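U., I forgot to send this yesterday:
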Amino acid sequence: MKMRHLFVSMLLASAFTVGCAASPEDVCDHTAKLMAKEMPAEADKAKSEEVVKKFKEECVKSVKKRKENMGYFKYRTQSRCIMDASTLAAATKCK
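Result:
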């Protein structure tokens, strides 16, 4: 009986881990990294960091609201797409 409970617990744990969506903070961090990577080399570093910081603050608010409005499963699909993107252009195409 204990073995059965252990098996069911492990199955549920793996289902939840595989099916998780990225947090709004993770999505925004990844997007900010893409932004920073694509900024021109001659851009003022201090100003660039300020832009990225402001972006992250607004992004988290926006993504949390979007997550509530679109529902978990659609958000999960979109967040996975963004997290898999290697360019800002690819991330903006995620629906």
